[in-house]
């Protein structure tokens, strides 16, 4: 009973869509909904639904938390990042008036 109340609270208050969806899967399963029905209603695969249910049965509420990893490794080197920052600074300078930077002209020339 307390697990059901906790799941309902998560369903009402969770701002994380992954946690919310997993809580809904577990609640629907506890209410007797079949895996294919849950999968159809939530537009997920039956394997996903079964996985969430099994994980919840094995480890409890920790199964509702998103399993995010570090992501793809960086492919841009630090040297390229420095060049990008310099280009951004140049663009910021080019958007302002030369007089604001203490220069004598009021417009930029190509040189």
What does the model show?
With 111 residues, this protein is mainly α. The protein folds into two domains: 2-64, no CATH class; 77-106. The protein has helices at 2-13, 17-30, 35-42, 46-59, 78-95. The chain is elongated. The model has no long low-confidence stretch (mean pLDDT 86).
Radius of gyration computed on alpha carbons: 26 Å
- Overall number of strands: 0
> What's the shape?
elongated
Structural class: mainly alpha
Count of DSSP-assigned helices: 5
Helix content, binned percent: 55-70%
Average pLDDT reading:
86
Order of helices and strands: HHHHH
For the biggest sheet, the summary is: none
List its salient traits:
mainly alpha, 2 domains, single chain, 111 residues, elongated, 0% strand, 5 helices
Provide a short characterization of the protein structure.
With about 110 residues, the chain is mainly alpha-helical. Helix content is about 60%, strand content about 0%.
SSE inventory with pairings:
Layout: H1 2-13, H2 17-30, H3 35-42, H4 46-59, H5 78-95
Helix pairs in contact: 1-2, 2-3, 2-4, 3-4
């Amino acid at each position: 009973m307390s697990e059901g109340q906790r799941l309902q609270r998560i369903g009402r208050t969770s701002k994380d869509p992954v946690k919310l969806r997993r809580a809904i899967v577990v609640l629907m399963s506890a209410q007797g909904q079949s895996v294919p029905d849950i999968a159809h209603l939530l537009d997920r695969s039956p394997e996903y639904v079964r996985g969430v249910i099994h994980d919840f049965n094995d480890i409890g509420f920790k199964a509702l938390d998103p399993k995010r990893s570090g992501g793809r490794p960086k492919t841009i080197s630090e040297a390229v990042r420095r060049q990008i920052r310099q280009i951004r600074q140049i663009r910021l300078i080019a958007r302002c008036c030369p007089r604001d930077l203490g220069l004598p002209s009021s417009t930029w020339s190509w040189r």
